[in-house]
Every structure is written in structure tokens, then in C-alpha cells.
Amino acid sequence: MTQKTAQAAADLPLDTVLVGDCIELMNGLPEGSVDLIFADPPYNLQLKGELHRPDNSRVDGVDNDWDRFASFETYDAFTRAWLTAARRVLKPDGAIWVIGSYHNIFRVGSALQDSGFWILNDVVWRKTNPMPNFRGKRLTNAHETLIWAGKSDGAKYTFNYEALKQLNDGVQMRSDWLLPICNGGERLKTESGEKAHPTQKPEALLHRVLVATSKPGDVILDPFFGTGTTGAVARRLGRRWIGLERDEAYATLARKRIAGVPRADAESLKTTASRRAEPRVPFGQLVERGLLAPGEVLVSLNGRRTAKVRADGSLVSAETRGSIHQVAAALEGLPSCNGWTYWSFKRDGQAIPIDVLRQQIRAEMSA
Amino acid sequence: MTQKTAQAAADLPLDTVLVGDCIELMNGLPEGSVDLIFADPPYNLQLKGELHRPDNSRVDGVDNDWDRFASFETYDAFTRAWLTAARRVLKPDGAIWVIGSYHNIFRVGSALQDSGFWILNDVVWRKTNPMPNFRGKRLTNAHETLIWAGKSDGAKYTFNYEALKQLNDGVQMRSDWLLPICNGGERLKTESGEKAHPTQKPEALLHRVLVATSKPGDVILDPFFGTGTTGAVARRLGRRWIGLERDEAYATLARKRIAGVPRADAESLKTTASRRAEPRVPFGQLVERGLLAPGEVLVSLNGRRTAKVRADGSLVSAETRGSIHQVAAALEGLPSCNGWTYWSFKRDGQAIPIDVLRQQIRAEMSA
DNA sequence: TCGCATATTGAATCGCCCG
DNA sequence: ACGGGCGATTCAATATGCG
Known about the structure:
Chains A, B: Its EC number is 2.1.1.-. Chains A, B: Keywords: DNA replication, DNA-binding, Methyltransferase, S-adenosyl-L-methionine, Transferase. The structure is a homodimer. The first copy, chain A, contains 12 helices and 14 strands. Chain A is of the alpha/beta class. Chain A is elongated and about 85 Å long. The first copy, chain A, has 2 domains: 16-47 and 56-275, Rossmann fold; 278-365. In chain A, strands 1-8-7-2-3-5-4-6 form an 8-stranded mixed sheet, sandwiched between helices. A 6-stranded antiparallel sheet of chain A has the order 12-11-10-9-13-14. At the A-B interface, helix 4, strand 4, strand 5 and helix 9 of A face helix 3, helix 4, strand 4, strand 5 and helix 5 of B. The structure holds a DNA duplex.
């Protein structure tokens, strides 16, 4: 450690939450003093009216003041300002993570590149339990995006390749991470039982980020600390942390929360097992992947019934239409029927069960 | 179809590949004439050497910061130029898809928003078989990102919700799609056995995009056509297509490839329809047709509320009167309520949902 | 205390037609 | 162009309550 960095480290407000504007607070920290930054900035969601679930209950959306910006220009100016301040406090071999959704992540990614950061990966947090699209007007918004970037092109950075391989059952960790959203006992509540913060992130996400790209003893800075998930995980993993938060109430909650987190022995570092994608294969994938063509005819195993495949993976017979299971059941007059074992298709005059194709896809998925 | 759009359609070079600069070619197409655009623009930022400013002067590689800035600036200018041309040829209710990786997708997303497009979803293509990270210095780059955007905020767009739900085994399609990369027999090869195009996309990806956000007969434009995956899938799915490609060799390959693709029959192209598309049946018709008598009493599904049918198809309860929806909403204290699923009537002591009668009338109408 | 049914909730850019 | 009315729409994980 050089004298300069030693002095910088001594000046750091380690393991504390500072309340105030994160840009001013960062500018008050020594230059080049922080190993890793994790930032969960406002997403600028731009929600308009109210939204109700099909059961008429109201969705509690994010309508906080801190998420309202007048325009993209305003949001961009804010983003560039805090990224500039963040880059200054970062060590030359430091790195940054930023999380966002499609509302803001493209602005953030561009600003990162323009500020001189060098993107190392973009990572997709796939939610096991996202909120559905209640009106059926779009795809279920089932993921958020994280960007991992080094301080500059060619700079060194920390990446614990083997540790992440361990976390992923011995194979290279991919850029798509499947993790549940933060709920249950982990979700902080107010005394009246409401959620304490509208966008609390799961500790498992931070766990993976910190295990992947920091070392024990590293200083982790979070400029949008909220209720302190970054601090809680940093403490458990034996890292030092600094939290910046504008809202005194959130800061107070975070301090209390983190104080209750046990520092870990090396053992609990290995707890988060990766959840592998389940091998469910929708019949429609056989059509999408060209294993069956739209218009192709399926034949029942007993040879007595036929149905035609449609582009969306539904079947049509003379009398009925629906899924492979529904059409099979209707044709046989049964309450239910497993279409996978009922239908076959013809290749070179031979009848082949469609389940053969499903097994083919499953083999690809697990390969 | 208005005269203007009819003329525009007549002027379109349907089902052909045009060779040349995609911006010039798009500017030669009629305004507001295309239903959907799928774009797979070049990712290559050419960051190492060969940097050119927007005026095509070569950047002198002395200052790293200037290099980086100049290259992003060049890429941004190119992106904004082709997006502007693309937006002009799009119908007001049209939409665009763009695919990219972390090298370029943040530039593209920001440019889309700045050009007036309205992002509807970002979609993650998760690769079952990505290329591993050989050096173990980063995460396996296992996904690419697609952005789906409407022409402007508030504009309509096509989304075949039920078809995608069908493709996903009966649950809402999510924003993360697991599909293999294009290889094997689908991957076009040169005569010497090398891959014909470096970034050929899998047909399954285009299948899902087109089934989700276009209708049979729609015009699909691909300004970076390459070897024509968009055209091949469009033809199979009964869509019209226009391909723009700078490289004559790719265009030739694409033409040959697409000519060999069989068209699916019209019946197989129909996808599972949404209930919204079914003909509207005014409640009064049930009374007119004698399925319900004036004075007959309806009961809510929870059994707690009743209302009486009047001759004009309105309801009266003790407290309020109006349509089946209005009375249900008022009685439940809700902002709105679907009366069709709220009310039932009695026959032989049994409660029968009034929606049964609506389905009866619809069946008669389609017979 | 267990098992089952019901209720609640999560970073959400979530209608459309007709007069 | 705008306002009113019709009527379509949800998945996974907890929490609660009941027998």
C-alpha cells in the first residue's frame, strides 16, 4: 500500500451510513480510495395512472419523489453527475455495478461508456417470481439488468472465477442469474406492516456480486444505500462498506439492520446454491425450433385421430382446438390426457412420438 | 385501407432483397408503409484502430479518451440515422425490434428513446449453448438483448398475448427466452464449409418475434438482412417481407435460402385468439331474445347481491340502476366490474352465470 | 400442530370503441 | 378530439385462517 492510499483509507468513514446528497458526499471522499461500487439508482419509471389486478386490488407502484424526473435530459444529467463522482473515488483497479430496468438502463449504460468506464459484462437478474402483466398487453417484465464495468479500458479488476464456478455447481457462471425477489422475512417492514422501502434488493443478488468481484477487506461503496442490503451482505462477507443515503429514515433502518448481521466465518460464504432452470418444455418450442412445421399433421398413437399444428403450438382437429393435451382429451372423450405420450408425427413414413423431440430439447438445455 | 396506405402498399418491393445502403433504401420507401421492423445492426464498434469521425476522417490514435469518444460518437450518429429512417417508414401503429449485446445495446436503447420510440419490453435471449469464456476473466456471455418498441408513446401496437401464452404452456410469456444459437443444419455454410455469416440468428427467435407482434399478411422490414433469417421465417408464417442488405453476396444467399422455404397454410397461421377479438354482445340482446325475462332476478356470484332485469337490458337494485357493469361496480364499491362474470340467474334452482347465455348467442352468430 | 383453502403482494412505463 | 362506457386481465411466494 502506498502512502497516498494508506492515507486515503484512513480518511474513509468505513462501515457507516452518511446522510445527504450522494454526489456531494462522494466528492468529500478521498480520490481513488474505494474498491467496488454497487449502485441502485432511481429507475425513472414514468408511471402514469393507477393499475389494478384482475381481482380489482390496486398495485402499489413506485410513486416516490426520488423517482420523478422531468425528462430524459434531466435523468441523463443526474446520471452523468453521479457517475463522474463515483469514478473519481474508485481505485484505478476498482469496478462498478449498476442495476436498472429498461426504463433507465440504456441511459446508464451509455453514460458509463461515455464516462470512461469499460463494460465487462451485462448481467440479467431473472426473477423466479416477478409481478405478472395484469392487462395482458406486454410480456411479463421478468428481469432486471446489471452492468459490471471496470474503471477504464485495460484496467485490472477483481474476478473470482473459481468461486463463481463453485456457486454454479462446477460450471462457468453465466451472465443470467435466476434469483427470487426480496420478500418474506428478508423484506423490511415498517411498524404498521408496510414495506419499508419500495425497491429493496435481495441479499442473494448482492452476495453473488460481492463474491464475484471483491475480496475480503475490500471497501464497498453504495451511493443509493436505501435500507442497506449492500452493507448487510458486505458485513456478512467480511468486506468494509460505506453507504450514502439521502433519506434519514432509510439510513436509520439500515444502521439497525446491519448491526444485527453476524459476520461470517468462511463457511457461510458457500451457501447460495444456484437454481437451475426447470426442464419444462412447452410444446410450442418444437414449432419455434423447426422440429415441427406449422400445418404439420400429428397422429394419435392408436392411429385413429389426427390434428394439425399451428404456429403458436396449439392444435386444430375437425371438432376442436387447444393444447396437445386438450385436443387429445376431447377426441378421446376423457377428462384429461397427456398429449406428450398421445401424439406422434411422420418422418419418412415412420410414426415418431413427439416426446422424442422434447427429450432432444431437454438434452440441449442441460448440455 | 385508406387511399394513401393502399398506394404505399402498392409501391412496396414486397418479398425482395434490395442491395445498398439501408438508410438510402429506407428513404426510398413510402412513409408509414411497414408494420414491423426487425433490426440486427452491426455490433462492431471497431474500437481498436480504424476509427472514423462522422465526416469519415480518420481518427489519429493518440489520445485514448478521444478515440473512445470518437468511436461511440460515430456509432451513435449511425444509429440515430438509421433509426430515423426506420421510424419514417413505419406505420403509426407499427413497432420495431432491435437486437444487440452490451457493446452496442445501450447506445441503441438510448437512441430509440431519443428518437421518439416507446419501449414496450426488453427481452433477453438466453442461449442454451453460448460460447464459454475461455480465459476465465469474466462471466460467460450467455445472452443477447432485444428491445421491442412502439412508434411513439401511446401508439397502438400488435401483441398476440394468447398466442404467446400458448407457446409457453398456458402461462404468460416472460421477458427471458431460452433458445439455442443457430448451428447445425440451419447454419448457412459457404462452399468451402465456413459459416456464411458471422452472426446468423436462429429462426426460432424470429418465429417468436413474428408470432408475438405481427399478423399474417403484415409487412416486415429488415434493414440489416444478412442471410435472410427474417425473410425465411416471415415467408413460412405468411407475412410479407422486405430485406435491405449492403453485401450482394449475402443478398444472393438470402434469396436462394428463402425461395426454398415452404409457406404454411392459412389455417395453421391462425393463432389462439383473445376474447377481446370476439364480437360484442349487448346484455339487452339476452332480454330481446327471451333468454332472460324482464323482471327476472339476477344474483351475484357470491350470493350476497341481487338486481332485477328491465326490458331495456338495464338492471335495478335497491340502491342503484344502470348497466350490468355499473350496478355490479356500485354494489361492490369498485371503480369498475365486469358484469358478465359477476351475475348469474336461476333455472330449476341452479345458479347459472349469465356469460353462458352470451356464449350461446356468439355460437349462433358464428354458425 | 398439521393440512388445506383463502388472501395478499411484488421497480408496472398494462384499453378500446363509439358517439 | 375527447369523454364515457364496456368488459378483459395474473404468477409465485408468503401470510393467515379454519377445521
